[in-house]
Amino acid sequence: MNPSQPLNMLRSPYTDIFFEKLDPYAKYKTYPVGTWLRMQSSEVRHCYLVRTGVIHLYRQPEDVLIGVFEAPSIRGLVPETGSLELSFRVAAVSEIACISYPDLMDIIEKNNLWEIFARHMQVLASSLFVHMAHITSPSAYEAIRFQLMELMSLSPAIRDNISAEKYIRSKTQLSRSGIMRILAQLKAGGYIVLNNGVLKEIINLPAKY
């Protein structure tokens, strides 16, 4: 797999269509860095249209980073189940519109967008399957390899503002010492380029190490 190809952050080709169709119903606000927004409050489930900026999606209460998403992005289409609680943190100044899930379904119904919605959800399901398969990797190296490839797929503006170790640890809950040891070995072996802990380039990541 090409290390520059996004994995669990695959962008659906239907995102732009949704933004165009939902624009008359969306009221955007500008949110500063550090703002937290919940997917569900009280009995209301929310969907968020991120027109500009970057968000970090977390699983609560463990505070586990699930993914980094650059605009344009639609979050909240997949319902929370059981004790799963999702929230996201604004990582760069972002324009975001909030639409309740029932209202979104009503807009989809009135505008006959069910086929687009189904195809969009299919892309999300596929990327989620890839993500789950890799975070349950049988070895620490395989989990780290996946996260490095995922980190490399982000834009330099995002990648340059987070250390590879911190990104991997927030996504996998592996120990800091274990991550640093493998990163040091990969750097020494010429497999990756790190500058002050920031991932700059992937030369070649072997499937096994």
- Low-confidence parts: 1-9
CATH C-level class of the largest domain is: Mainly Beta
Average residue-wise pLDDT: 85
User: Helicity range of the residues?
Assistant: 25-40%
| Count of spatially separate domains | 2
Assess the beta-strand content as a share of residues.
25-35%
Explain this structure to me?
Strands 1, 2, 3, 4, 5, 6 and 7 form a 7-stranded antiparallel sheet that branches. The chain has 2 domains: 15-113, Jelly Rolls, CATH 2.60.120.10; 137-202, Orthogonal Bundle (Arc Repressor Mutant, subunit A). Residues 1-9 have low confidence and may be disordered. It has 7 helices and 9 strands, in the order H-E-E-E-E-E-E-E-H-H-H-H-H-H-E-E. Helix 4 crosses helix 6 (164-172) and helix 6 (164-172) packs across helix 7 (176-188). The protein has helices at residues 15-22, 101-110, 114-135, 140-152, 156-159, 164-172, 176-188, and strands at residues 28-31, 36-38, 40-41, 44-60, 64-70, 73-75, 85-100, 192-195, 198-202. The longest helix has 22 residues, at 114-135. A hairpin with a 2-residue loop joins strand 8 (192-195) and strand 9 (198-202). The chain is α+β, with helices and mostly antiparallel strands. It is elongated and about 55 Å long.
